[in-house]
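lol ok so funny story. i was supposed to be doing the assay writeup but got distracted and ended up predicting the structure for this chain instead. priorities right. anyway since i did it might as well share w the group, maybe its usefull for someone
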Amino acid sequence: MTNRYFETANTDPALNLAIEEALLLQAGGPALFLWQNAHTVVIGRGQNAWKECRAQLLEQEGGTLVRRSTGGGAVYHDLGNLNFSFVMPKDVYDVPRQLGVISAAAASFGIKTQASGRNDIVLSQTGAKFSGNAFRHTQTTSLHHGTILLAVDFALLGRYLQPSRLKLQAKGVDSVRARVGNLIDHAPGLTLSALKAALLTAFEREYGPTQRLDWRQALPEDQVAQLAARYRDWGWTYGKTPRFDLSLEQRFPFGSVELQLLVKRGQVAEARCFTDANDPDLASQVEAALTGAPFTTTALADRLATGSLEMRQLGEWLRQQQL
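and the output, tada:
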């Protein structure tokens, strides 16, 4: 298989996410894709768009809100941030190995890093997060993508993002700013072009010679256009927000969960689940399991008892609630 490297000067988040997804669906050789979004908030697939950021303010100030296809939490992108995507065949996919590429690139500038928590890379010196990661899998190929904070405007990051009350309570933090850090503060003079070159060098050292390609050479442009249209669609980004009779929220080891239940005649007529869990399918699986269930804690918990570990943990918590 041929190793491949892509980068683009495009800063449209819908197009960049479309290119990335087309690479995933293509199931080619190992690929590294580097890209940037301008003035954008990107939310995880299972998140509540209305609660994760100040969407109206963002759009009034010329920004864009998009929903990605992977799980995880909300992030702010500007041109001080570099995004990476590893698109890897299943037999090559290895998260610690891929994270090693990021750490090796940082180390080439004298910056020591380490993995932390569910999906972060932090600066060893301060413990501040500079890279958040998320994942998605098909039958043959896996996507691992993330951010690299080079010189992000933290004032804007804090202006648009709204970390949940449960996250703040769980982490005991005073501000978003305290949890993140820029690489440039630890390597003054570090440039975007130098960082890209270091990432490609680290990728080639790990995986071997790599062919540099334009995405238009490798992907059908009509497919990319269709995917980009979906990422721009209001329904994909915001979804429907009907009236609900009950809202429950809790933090679990795998992430936070908000459940909204519409109850009619003693049954759950509609369920919505919002989560920053890494599993991009968790929200839809929970919604399917709870819809139609009798509105009792036992019945709701039983519907989740045959699902994934995350669903079972949610179910056991529901079993203890007073509805």
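The chain is about 35% helix and 25% strand. The CA atoms of residues 195 and 290 lie 46 Å apart.
back to the writeup now i swear
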